[in-house]
């Protein structure tokens, strides 16, 4: 781990946030010493701050002495626009898609250079996928990510392509020129396709949710077993759902900005 | 608003948390002055803290100058045990229930004296309900709440009954003795029923998720139009789902505590 030389200059609020930021999917539970090491803060500071965070409910401490994100922080986070407005509006449309397909239905936004998964519906018969709510996956390897990239600001796409494109499977598109062509094709046909680019054995179809402004609010995708070759058949329903979500988002936006 | 006389003694981390705590369902977006008033902190302090919170991603500021909960805080919160483990395990079972009913499917835990809604599935044809993810509703007026109360520690129930029982509709059980009888009946038959006790026009059936320990991990409920009189018919599926969730939770618990 890289030592953060700015640590001593961090404010107390900044240190408290740093403690919240050290949890990740691989480390949802941490001991006090691991908190201190990962946040690069003295143990005594972490001890005091963790106590404050626990008493507010930003962290919780289980019977084994492990800390995890607390219920009150989770509750506050349900008020984030992405979780509240976007997810709440999208969910019934996602349910309709789930009912007709019984497959994984994804809702993602882009944050930085990642596709950030905001909602995922899946049943017992859906193909296993690595996405989870709150997960970040590379945009160029996922259906929702390619749908978002294909509609993104050209300057953003230029910066995306200028970075290394990590290979996730042997089918991930990692050549810059090929990805640029793929994004143009995606924009032209109006939906993105992936074929084992993120997970071997699964493929996906996704569309951007049309937004008022230039960038899409998010993207909606369906992930299925790659042996199924009827992805195109799913496009009309997917598109209707994305348009339905866009209409409701626009109505909600107007309601907020008028009142 | 009650003036908080402890405010000047709050630490900087405590003040930062106070800013996160002032958002609620009715106020998911707040101006800087509202943040200051609701957190009972000086404007200059709030200005500086809000800047720190925005730069970390705990808050975000929109084009109109309103603050809301930020994407990075939402992302960290997806790692809370209630959102990660419980929701992730329960979701496919909830989907099965949704598929067979097309109604609102709820997953709730109890926190303090409230039923806290962790997940909700609903489609376009489900009866409109006031629950949302992150919402708190009174335990005695909801199916999931009564299912949780019926299995709760007797001392907890005693304290619950000692408090005033708010009336939500004219059918809410607000008499202490009647609620105690209702909870005994719920425990005996193994599932909770409500009939327009939370929302006129809707009724619900719910079961507690059996847990290792004494208290249930959560409760699973279905909310339907009250004109339907076939709630009992839903019980076997509901119970099978709750037992399936309990088995997976136990397996996940063992996996975490062995490794």
UniProtKB/TrEMBL annotation, chains A, B:
<feature type="domain" description="IclR-ED">
    <location>
        <begin position="72"/>
        <end position="251"/>
    </location>
</feature>
<dbReference type="Pfam" id="PF09339">
    <property type="entry name" value="HTH_IclR"/>
</dbReference>
<keyword id="KW-0805">Transcription regulation</keyword>
<dbReference type="InterPro" id="IPR036390">
    <property type="entry name" value="WH_DNA-bd_sf"/>
</dbReference>
<dbReference type="InterPro" id="IPR050707">
    <property type="entry name" value="HTH_MetabolicPath_Reg"/>
</dbReference>
<dbReference type="InterPro" id="IPR029016">
    <property type="entry name" value="GAF-like_dom_sf"/>
</dbReference>
<dbReference type="Pfam" id="PF01614">
    <property type="entry name" value="IclR_C"/>
</dbReference>
<feature type="domain" description="HTH iclR-type">
    <location>
        <begin position="10"/>
        <end position="71"/>
    </location>
</feature>
<dbReference type="InterPro" id="IPR005471">
    <property type="entry name" value="Tscrpt_reg_IclR_N"/>
</dbReference>
<dbReference type="InterPro" id="IPR036388">
    <property type="entry name" value="WH-like_DNA-bd_sf"/>
</dbReference>
<keyword id="KW-0238">DNA-binding</keyword>
<dbReference type="GO" id="GO:0003700">
    <property type="term" value="F:DNA-binding transcription factor activity"/>
</dbReference>
<dbReference type="InterPro" id="IPR014757">
    <property type="entry name" value="Tscrpt_reg_IclR_C"/>
</dbReference>
<protein>
    <submittedName>
        <fullName>IclR family transcriptional regulator</fullName>
    </submittedName>
</protein>
<keyword id="KW-0804">Transcription</keyword>
<dbReference type="GO" id="GO:0045892">
    <property type="term" value="P:negative regulation of DNA-templated transcription"/>
</dbReference>
<dbReference type="GO" id="GO:0003677">
    <property type="term" value="F:DNA binding"/>
</dbReference>
């Amino acid at each position: 781990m890289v030592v953060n030389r700015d640590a001593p200059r961090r404010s107390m609020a900044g240190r408290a946030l740093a403690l919240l930021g050290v949890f990740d999917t691989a480390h949802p539970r941490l001991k006090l010493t691991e908190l201190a090491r990962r946040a690069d803060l003295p143990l005594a500071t972490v001890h005091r701050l963790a106590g404050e965070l626990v008493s507010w409910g930003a962290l919780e401490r289980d019977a084994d002495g492990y800390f995890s994100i607390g219920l009150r922080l989770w509750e506050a986070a349900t008020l984030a626009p992405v979780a509240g407005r976007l997810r709440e509006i999208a969910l019934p449309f996602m349910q309709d898609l789930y009912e007709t397909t019984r497959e994984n239905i994804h809702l993602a936004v882009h944050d930085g250079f990642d596709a950030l998964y905001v909602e995922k519906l899946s049943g017992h018969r859906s193909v296993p996928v690595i996405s989870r709510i709150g997960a970040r996956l590379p945009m160029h390897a996922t259906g929702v990510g390619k749908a978002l990239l294909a509609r993104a600001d050209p300057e953003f796409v230029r910066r995306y392509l200028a970075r290394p494109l990590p290979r996730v499977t042997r089918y991930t598109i990692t050549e810059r020129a090929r990805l640029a062509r793929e994004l143009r094709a995606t924009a032209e046909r109006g939906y993105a396709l992936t074929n084992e680019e993120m997970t071997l054995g699964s493929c996906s179809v996704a569309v951007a949710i049309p937004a008022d402004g230039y960038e899409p609010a998010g993207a909606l995708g369906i992930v299925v077993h790659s042996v199924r070759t009827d992805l195109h058949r799913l496009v009309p329903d997917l598109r209707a759902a994305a348009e339905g979500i866009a209409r409701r988002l626009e109505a909600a936006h107007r309601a907020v900005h008028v009142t």
